[in-house]
Design goal:
Length: 85
């Protein structure tokens, strides 16, 4: 697991903007989409396991998944926040 002070230094790999902790409602919605098999990342792959959380870029449109306490900050692994609904 990465400590919170280190997480504050992370930036979006797509545009360099700051990342913040995604809200619980977003994580619950994204995990519902995972359970239904309909959540895909920007690389086009189906996200197959539940998210522990997400880091969201400033604009709020992209979320980076957290698995086992580690944020995955690869451009193709980002998830469109709009896909939660």
């Amino acid at each position: 697991m990465i400590d919170e002070s280190t997480l504050k230094l992370l930036q979006c790999p797509n545009d360099g903007s700051a990342l913040s902790v995604g809200g619980e409602d977003l994580v619950v919605s994204l995990n519902a989409a995972v359970a239904e098999g309909r959540l895909k990342n920007l690389g086009g792959e189906v996200v197959e396991r539940p998210l522990d959380g997400v880091r969201v870029r400033e604009s709020g449109d992209l979320a980076y998944p957290i698995f086992d306490g580690v944020p995955v900050l690869l451009a193709d692994e980002a998830i469109r926040a709009a896909d939660a609904g």
